[in-house]
Amino acid sequence: xxxxxxxxxxxxxxxxxxxxxxxxxxxxxxxxxxxxxxxxxxxxxxxxxxxxxxxxxxxxxxxxxxxxxxxxxxxxxxxxxxxxxxxxxxxxxxxxxxxxxxxxxxxxxxxxxxxxxxxxxxxxxxxxxxxxxxxxxxxxxxxxxxxxxxxxxxxxxxxxxxxxxxxxxxxxxxxxxxxxxxxxxxxxxxxxxxxxxxxxxxxxxxxxxxxxxxxxxxxxxxxxxxxxxxxxxxxxxxxxxxxxxxxxxxxxxxxxxxxxxxxxxxxxxxxxxxxxxxxxxxxxxxxxxxxxxxxxxxxxxxxxxxxxxxxxxxxxxxxxxxxxxxxxxxxxxxxxxxxxxxxxxxxxxxxxxxxxxxxxxxxxxxx
Length: 367
Known about the structure:
Layout: H1 3-21, H2 26-30, H3 36-41, H4 48-56, H5 61-85, H6 93-109, H7 115-127, H8 131-159, H9 164-189, H10 196-202, H11 206-221, H12 231-255, H13 258-261, H14 263-267, H15 269-283, H16 295-305, H17 311-339, H18 344-353, H19 359-363
Helix pairs in contact: 1-16, 4-17, 5-6, 5-8, 5-12, 5-17, 6-7, 6-17, 7-8, 7-18, 8-9, 8-11, 8-15, 12-15, 15-16, 16-17
């Protein structure tokens, strides 16, 4: 794996964890009004005594229900991905579910969401297709996720007055995401995606040939975009995923008594749930340590602060909703990892092999 990118992800997570726990006094440090250590670590954002009391008062049964809803959204994803993979090869629903679980497990122990790459490599081995084509199916899944998230975000933004800084950031994110979607859709639908103006930009040299070679393999993995007979089912299942996510978020808000204690949430609990979910979706896309540690929690705390929820209960919410899914992925994912003939150490090895420029990828007969 790319060490600078891994380091970046770790640093981002550390920064978010630091900002969750401490409140830096940079102005006081610059003006010599406090020491460096006192300015950086002297003021805590969290009253840990209050945090413990809040955690002791949490209602347990909604958390149990939330935990057992997790395999439901994995099942929906598995069926949806199975449909997306059909142009490349046939997967059974069980095989798709197994690869999804291994991918989630890998995301939980590897930085930068490398579980998506692991899943693509395992799909390549299962179907006997090129790694690039298999990763193309994962890219299609991400395209559908981003498109669904943009639609949900647009609806939520019309109902909730986000702060200007958040709205501006959402616009930038939407523009970047839209450009990426346009590029993927172009590759998926163009008859000759590397001809014409694009071909002239790529050039005819060695690098241009490599780009065309791997680009054409990627295009084969994007074939599902042209499989219009699956659009309806995939759209319904994408919406169902957000319903399951929202139900999980709602249950945890209920378990922390947020509807009772915070009027803004009590008056519009579903909207509050959706606001936090939208922000969390952006948070997990940031480069971070394994499992999105730090980034996920900071974004969830910020989202709840928009509804006047203090740091301590918001941190409890973020910790619990993240822990429930991570515990499921780590425990339930292990049998599927062993079923695929893998061990933890092999997950780290698989990701670099998926790189089109890696030696092993060049040596692969399928590539």
